[in-house]
UniProtKB/TrEMBL annotation:
InterPro entries tied to this protein: Ser/Thr_deHydtase_PyrdxlP-BS, Thr_synth_N, Thr_synth_N_sf, Thr_synthase-like, Threonine_Synthase, TrpB-like_PALP, TrpB-like_PALP_sf
Coiled-coil segments: none
Enzyme class name: lyase
Pfam families the UniProt entry points to: PALP (PF00291), THR4_C (PF24857), Thr_synth_N (PF14821)
Domain of life: Bacteria
Species whose genome carries this gene: Methylotenera oryzisoli
Residues with PTM N6-(pyridoxal phosphate)lysine: K120
Enzyme Commission number(s) from the entry: 4.2.3.1
Gene Ontology biological process: threonine biosynthetic process
UniProt-recorded name of the protein: Threonine synthase
Any one Gene Ontology molecular-function term assigned to this protein's record: threonine synthase activity
Cofactor: pyridoxal 5'-phosphate
Catalytic activity: O-phospho-L-homoserine + H2O = L-threonine + phosphate
Record-stated family: Belongs to the threonine synthase family.
Amino acid sequence: MKYISTRGQSPALSFSQILLGGLAPDGGLYLPETYPQFTDADLTAMRGLSYADLAFAILSRFVDDIPAADLKAIIDKTYRADVYAFTRAGQNAADITPTLKLEDNLYLLSLSNGPTLAFKDMAMQLLGNLFEYVLTKEGKTTNILGATSGDTGSAAEYAMRGKKGIRVFMLSPHKKMSRFQTAQMFSLQDDNIYNIAVNGVFDDCQDMVKAVSNDAEFKAQYKIGAVNSINWGRIVAQVVYYFKGYFAVTQNNSQKVSFSVPSGNFGNVCAGHIARMMGLPIDKLVVATNENDVLDEFFKTGVYSPRGSANTYHTSSPSMDISKASNFERFVFDLVGRDSDKTRALWTQVDSGNSFDLNADGYFAKIADYGFVSGSSNHAHRMQTIRETKAKYEVVIDTHTADGLKVALAHLDAQTPMVVLETALPAKFEDAIVEALGQASERPAALNGIESLPQKFTVMDASAADIKTFIANNT
Ligand SMILES: Cc1ncc(COP(=O)(O)O)c(C=O)c1O
Ligand SMILES: N[C@@H](CCOP(=O)(O)O)C(=O)O
């Protein structure tokens, strides 16, 4: 299996060759040359597999340059009940991503039972183990440069802390994460972890990562690695739980299922798109945004109009405060028939601060073939959804999942199960939960008092030159 760039001007490479890096040298994102196909018989054989066995059945179709026994061992080490242990009452941690039935045809898929209480742990724990395997085998080291709006950062730091040969430099928007998220990252005192609070929004942090990644000389000299969802490894690991969720709520493969996905950087729902392209019977993929609704605007109008920092709002679902969705490029590459010249032309416009409109060439007319629908939510909706979910089902959900559920409810149909992805646990957003319910949600005992621990971080302006100097001075 070879991986190609969406912009068509980089050589095709193997999985291990693209594992550590982020952007392709031409600035594009990697995708497999073709998507592996799963037939009805394949799906039947996969029903009832454990999470780890399911992950192997899927990932082994994408990874052909790591011996199968080694890949299996890495997957088995990753997807263990004791790693994804923060289950809700009555859930079985061995399911790794258990489903929670709210009512007939309406479910939550719990993706946030890992060490940092957000769905990022699903892929990041695997990435940590894969990085360690490849680096040890090749006798190499890496300096990871990442951007976070609150959850990728802590998931990456928990996955990489103490790992030999890996340093993590994590950029986050200064004072824009929840108190819990901030404490989760900044309280880590490990020598290989560097937290940098950037005066700006998440998109400024992401732009800094991309600017460094596009500097081939610096990238090679400082062995820069990526853990954001621009890294293909993140996306492919997220494909697995769509299969797991599908099997959990169906009895046979003639049934279709819809998924509602709280969205920001479009990584999570991009994995759903790929699962659908591989033959998983998905009906709708519901893209749910908060007030930063660039993606909702696209799926309603065909116009993609990324916004600048000044028009990116700080909301109570802060991890989705994103106005330039990296992985959207992967989907548009498929939508335009994998025409890399077209994709490159579109992102040349985006990279110079402009919009594009996919109506003119007739591409937007094909959107229905891909199952996407969308909607947006705001603070009042989140509060109301959290309150109603508690009152109706005795379940407390976080603000991002609330965005997903609110938008899902507008896209229900009587025949098709709707699965809402639970992308974080409410403990991460305590102030918002107290506002909605008048009391905090439960948090794992091990994380009590995390906000009072000493914090270690550096404040920086949004400057690619400054982060390069910082990396050079700390390696
Ligand atoms: C809790 C939470 N929900 C949803 C999202 C949005 O996911 P994506 O960026 O993959 O669209 C994120 C961050 O990305 C998140 O941290
Ligand atoms: N929501 C994320 C930001 C997007 O990160 P990605 O790694 O999924 O691209 C966060 O919480 O950090």
